[in-house]
Write a structure and sequence with these properties.
alpha/beta, Rossmann fold, Arc Repressor Mutant, subunit A, 15 helices, globular, DNA binding
Length: about 350
């Protein structure tokens, strides 16, 4: 499945996690791979055109091949899911990385994605080139200050009472914590996303797991370049959590964003700071990345390109053969030739080849 906004295209795919849950993920952009664990409040198609997320997706797609996914139970991933444990969520991240054919990649964790990313980084130190932690934490929220615990309980009550209501009065409380400086359009976008991304029951089940999820013990084990970004007056995730991450990860650098917003908005001074810091942090990956996508794609024949474009639309080999009036065997041969030119092999070669094509588009 593909979607286009302006000149940008995202391809939506599905990875199968260890327990069989289907995890939806999207690929767009050009450059070294950057996998984003944006965590629970997401919907791949809705976010693609959201006034809250478009500046992130457009700008990050100019410096990296962006892979992002909907968590289990949320967005376009399987909804009827009972297991929201840390173990399951780490397996989901692993499944997406494998299905997308990523050998080594940078990982960006936002919000409640922090514990998952930290756990994954500790388990797979050779898989990541670098780690970005944005507006997030390691866990252990139950030792938070009393006012933080009171806020946690209040948000839980709001979810139970108002999450599924057609009007957004209850959801707006949560929205105001996320982007207190947001425009009405941006706030409506989060209001709508809450109800679209997840139902109230799933949201409560997931929260019950996350409040006891803690990867703090892993922080001292991380030995990779790490960038921590956090808004100074973040109301959803207190600034102290970002400071704690930077203090406990060897060599980590903390960048303070002068903002009240948990999600930095496109028109505030903190946004170019965020973008500059991330771009400069990822620069070594661009220098050491394999041959540029444009150069590699240029080696494909017109027929190989045509077949790959149809594969990017989600068509299988039988449908591609019918469209081009070829035999299935001929389609398979062209695909194998394309994989060889792109240096790909194995069960994830098709997904990786499509990602390379989309990055070139």
């Amino acid at each position: 499945m593909t979607a286009r906004v302006g000149t940008s295209v995202q391809s939506i795919r599905f990875a199968r996690s260890a327990d069989g849950v289907a995890i939806a993920y999207a690929v767009h952009g050009n450059g070294p791979p950057l996998l984003i664990d944006k965590c629970w409040l997401s919907h791949l198609q809705f976010d693609w055109q959201s006034p809250l997320w478009r500046h992130y997706l457009v700008e990050l797609g100019r410096i990296a091949t962006v892979i992002r996914y909907d968590e289990r139970g949320y967005g376009m991933s399987d909804r009827d899911v009972a297991d929201h444990s840390l173990q399951a969520r780490v397996a989901d991240l692993q499944a997406v990385a494998d299905d997308a054919g990523l050998e080594r990649f940078a990982l960006l964790a936002m919000a409640q994605g922090g514990p998952v990313a930290i756990e994954y980084a500790a388990r797979h130190p050779g898989r990541l080139t670098r780690l970005i932690l944005y507006g997030t934490f390691a866990g252990d929220q139950l030792t938070a200050a009393p006012e933080d615990l009171e806020l946690y309980e209040t948000v839980g009550a709001i979810i139970r009472v108002g999450w599924s209501r057609p009007t957004a009065e209850f959801r707006r409380v949560f929205t105001s914590l996320m982007i207190p400086d947001g425009t009405e359009e941006q706030m409506r976008s989060i209001d709508d996303l809450q109800r679209l991304a997840v139902d109230a029951e799933t949201a409560m089940q997931a929260r019950s797991h996350r409040v006891v999820t803690d990867s703090s013990a892993r922080l001292s084990q991380l030995e990779l370049p790490t960038l921590v970004l956090h808004s100074r007056d973040d109301r959803a995730q207190p600034y102290q959590r970002g400071r704690d991450l930077a203090a406990r990860i060897t060599g980590a650098r903390l960048v303070t964003l002068e903002s009240k917003n948990h999600i930095v908005l496109a028109d505030e001074p903190a946004w170019p700071v965020f973008l500059r810091e991330v771009s400069e942090f990822l620069a070594p990956d661009r220098v050491t990345a394999p041959r540029a996508a444009d150069d590699v794609i240029a080696t494909l024949s017109p027929r190989e390109l045509e077949i790959l474009r149809l594969a990017a639309e989600g068509r299988d080999n039988v449908a591609i053969a019918a469209e081009l009036v070829l035999s299935v065997r001929t389609v398979e041969r062209h695909l194998q030739n394309a994989y060889a030119k792109l240096g790909l092999q194995g069960r994830n070669a098709r997904t990786a080849a499509v990602a390379r094509l989309l990055a070139h588009t």
